[in-house]
Amino acid sequence: MPAPGAGSVSVTAPKGFVAAGVHCGIRKNGRRDVAIVRSLEPATGAGMFTINRVQAAPVVVCKEHLASAQPQAVVVNSGNANAATGAAGIAHARATAATAAQVLGIAQEEVLVLSTGVIGQPLPVASVLNGVAQAAVQLSRHGGGTAAEAIMTTDTCAKQAAASGSGFTVGGMAKGSGMIHPRMATMLAVVTTDYPLAAGEAIDFLRPAVDASFNSISVDGECSTNDAVILLANGASGVERTPDTDVQFAACVKQVCGELAKHIVADGEGASVVAEIAVRGAASDGEARAIAERVATSPLVKTALFGHDANWGRIAAAAGSAKFGGGFAALDPETLTIVIDRVPVLVDGSPTGDEPELTNGSCAIEIDLALGEGAATYLTTDLSYDYVKINAEYRT
Question: CA-to-CA distance for 296 and 290, rounded, in angstroms?
Answer without folding.
Answer: 10
